[in-house]
Amino acid sequence: MRNVYLDNAATTMVRQEVIDAMIPAFSTYYGNPSSLHEYAREAAKLVDDARADVAAIIGAKPEEIVFTAGGSESDNMALRGAVAANKKKGKHVITTAIEHHAVLYTLQAMEREGIAELTILPVDEFGLVTAKQVAEAIREDTVLVSIMFANNEVGTIEPIAEIGKICRDKGVLFHTDAVQATGHVPIDVVGMNIDLLSISAHKFHGPKGVGVLYIRKGVRIPSLIIGGGQERKRRAGTENVPGIVGLAAALKLANEHMQENAVRVGALRDKLMKGIAERIPDVKLNGHPTKRLPNNVNYSIRYIEGESILLMLDLNGIAASSGSACTSGSLDPSHVLLAMGLPHEIAHGSLRLTLSEFTTEEEIDYVLDLLPQIVQRLRDMSPLYPKKK
Question: Domain containing 215 — which CATH number?
Answer without folding.
Answer: 3.40.640.10
